[in-house]
Task: inverse folding
């Protein structure tokens, strides 16, 4: 597990250090669960919140707000709607409180679903991007 991995936006440890004790504890547990499900993950800060990435692509994010914590597993949250009953959700967000965290087994399945979705996407290629943006002069 990479802890305190420094990135351009800071570290997850620095992010967590600013939180109240209950949210910090809940997100530390979530962080450990994500690492257990995704050992190859590289920690980073993306969009100002903690994230885990693989091969340059962020797979999952988490964070804290005034009245709740959130897990951002992308669009896969919809696939688990029945199991997420009782949590406030939207297309790519699951909100929870430190008193009612998302079960670790569900977090692991969300992470695995997100990894599978990213693996099915076409890889980013510089050649495609460059070819689309260049024109031949005549």
Result:
């Amino acid at each position: 597990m990479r802890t305190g991995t420094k990135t351009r936006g800071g570290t997850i440890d620095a992010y967590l250090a600013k939180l109240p004790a209950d949210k910090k504890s809940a997100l530390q547990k979530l962080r450990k669960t994500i690492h257990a499900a995704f050992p190859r993950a590289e920690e980073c800060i993306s969009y100002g919140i903690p994230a885990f990435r693989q091969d340059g692509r962020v797979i999952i994010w988490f964070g804290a707000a005034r009245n709740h914590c959130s897990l951002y597993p992308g669009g896969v949250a919809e696939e688990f709607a029945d199991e997420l009953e009782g949590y406030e959700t939207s297309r790519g967000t699951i909100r929870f409180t430190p008193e009612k965290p998302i079960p670790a087994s569900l977090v692991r399945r969300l992470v695995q679903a997100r990894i599978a979705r990213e693996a099915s996407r076409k890889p980013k290629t510089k050649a495609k991007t460059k070819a689309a943006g260049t024109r031949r002069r005549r």
